[in-house]
Design goal:
Length: 503
């Protein structure tokens, strides 16, 4: 999954890092106590191992948004289709009334608490999202006003023209919840208040229990429920698939791929890029010449071959080959600073171990930077214990994996949230007027092809600062039991279990 942006202010944490789990046998029992490994008939429960634990009490506004969508709990007004275009979800249709106003027509649907999905409820949910602190990544730089319009309509007006609003509303962070989801403190609780085919009935202690929501507008799911466990140890996830203790395990480490039977190993392209982010605000990499020295020291082909074992492509830019139009439109960065000699400059490089390849990649990067003349201290933590420090600029460099089209499906969205002065997930702490200008221009560009061209010009402006060094464009590797059908491996990593997933 992908982890989500927020401002540099720290945000509350829900779960402490989980202890490594050597095996998962006996961990997946159905709510009634009967083992969920028995049977295998239609309607059996699915046992799923996920890499990241909830960081914010399952709030849809931040890091946990994709957890909810991947488990089939939440959904928004729209979704993304296979080509990355907006597709109907809770809204069955929409039209653009003028530059700043869109009208969406709702389908008949029911919240998991039994309430109807009404225009007023949807408008209230979107309004809550606009007031969230920090703002959801999909709303970075966007001001919108949602109003009910008749029995089935929602009229959404933005402060500035937003040609990709239907794509934006597909973001997992803009999921629609029932009015009962919002307590006095405004923090949303998706337990039993969402609209997806599965509802959370119990969560805590590193696991979650979900039951089928029989009144789902898209039809009853074929699985009767999901028993999910959050296991950061990739070897443990792979072992659980191999021994039959789980049906589905996400993010199988490349080092474990060869240990799985080919029939249980599933691969798919993804728009996820692993990058080295350099702290441009404080420390040695405030100097663009030292950033240039770090960039020229990196050999991404070595990382792809040695760490990802071929399950990735060398870093070409912020957007990789899964973004099919990017390479033909890529612009060469200009105005890069000349590299200075590091002369033993001390830096701290950080990464997280929820994705096992990242610490390995960090070790290779450490060696390459040290060979270039840097003195490198490596720090590895579980993601939820690392994110706030990274965003606060407490490290000189950070290696992370980011799905470039996760937030909105719009290529400009990730550029704005990750690489502008006001970006909510700006790990490089970049504030460059040329980059900001290019992103702003791209954000105001209409027309699919024209917007793609502008996005690639903005990518070039960002890469020209040497604030980010793309390392690898990853593939999805999942372990799936041969008894399971219908697992959804989409390049945006928003979906894993759907109505047709069964065993």
């Amino acid at each position: 999954m992908q982890v989500r942006p927020h401002s540099i202010k720290s945000r509350p944490r829900f779960l402490a890092a989980l202890a490594l789990v050597p095996c998962l046998a006996g961990c997946f029992a159905s709510p009634g106590g009967e083992s969920s490994s028995a049977g295998g008939q239609p309607g059996s429960r699915l046992r799923v191992a996920l890499a990241f634990p909830p960081a914010e009490n399952f709030s849809p506004y931040g890091a946990d948004a994709t957890l909810l969508s991947r488990l089939g709990v939440t959904e928004g007004l729209t979704a993304l289709d296979a080509n990355g275009a907006a597709a109907p979800a809770l809204a069955e249709s929409w039209r653009r009334e003028n530059d700043r106003t869109w009208r969406f027509t709702l389908r008949e649907a029911t919240f998991q608490d039994g309430a109807d999905v009404t225009p007023s409820a949807v408008a209230a949910a979107l309004t809550r999202a606009t007031k969230a602190k920090p703002a959801p990544a999909a709303l970075a730089g966007v001001t919108l006003d949602a109003k009910a319009d008749g029995d089935r309509g929602i009229r959404i007006t933005t402060a500035a023209a937003d040609p990709v609003l239907p794509m934006r509303l597909s973001s997992p962070s803009l999921a629609i919840l029932s009015p009962k989801a919002y307590g006095e403190n405004g923090n949303p609780d998706p337990v039993g208040t969402a609209t997806g085919p599965f509802e959370i009935t119990k969560a805590g202690g590193g696991s979650a229990t979900l039951d089928r929501f029989d009144d789902y507008w898209g039809g009853r799911a074929q699985a009767s429920g999901i028993d999910a466990r959050f296991v950061k140890d990739g070897t443990a996830r792979a072992n659980a698939v191999r021994t039959g203790d789980v049906d589905i395990a996400e993010a199988i480490p490349v080092a474990q791929a060869a240990t799985l039977d080919k029939a249980t190993l599933k691969e798919a392209g993804t728009t996820r890029t692993t990058s080295l982010q350099l702290n441009t605000r404080t420390g040695p990499f405030k100097d663009p010449k030292l950033r240039a020295a770090a960039r020229t020291a990196i050999d991404s082909s070595t990382i792809v071959k040695g760490v990802f074992e071929g399950y990735a492509d060398p870093g070409a830019g912020i957007f990789g080959p899964a973004v099919t139009w990017a390479e033909s439109k890529r612009v060469k960065p200009a105005g890069r600073a000349d590299a200075a000699k590091p002369d033993g400059e001390r830096i701290t490089l950080a990464t997280y171990d929820n994705r096992p390849e990242l610490p390995e990649a960090a070790q290779v990067v450490q060696q390459q930077l040290e060979k270039a003349g840097f003195t490198v201290k490596l720090e590895v933590r579980e993601y939820s214990r690392l994110e706030s420090d990274a965003l606060a600029g407490k490290f000189d460099a950070f290696i992370g994996a980011r799905n470039s089209l996760l937030d909105t499906g719009d290529p400009v969205g990730v550029l704005g949230s990750d690489y502008t002065c006001d970006g909510g997930y700006n790990l490089a702490l970049l504030c460059d007027k040329n980059a900001d200008r290019a992103v702003t221009k791209a954000d105001g560009t209409d027309g699919t092809g024209e917007r793609q061209d502008a996005a690639m010009a903005a990518e070039a402006a960002i890469l020209g600062t040497n604030a980010v060094v793309p390392l690898a464009h990853q593939q999805i590797i999942a372990g799936v039991s041969t008894k399971v059908r219908g697992v959804v491996l989409d390049p945006y990593e928003r979906t894993l279990v759907g109505t047709g997933t069964r065993r």
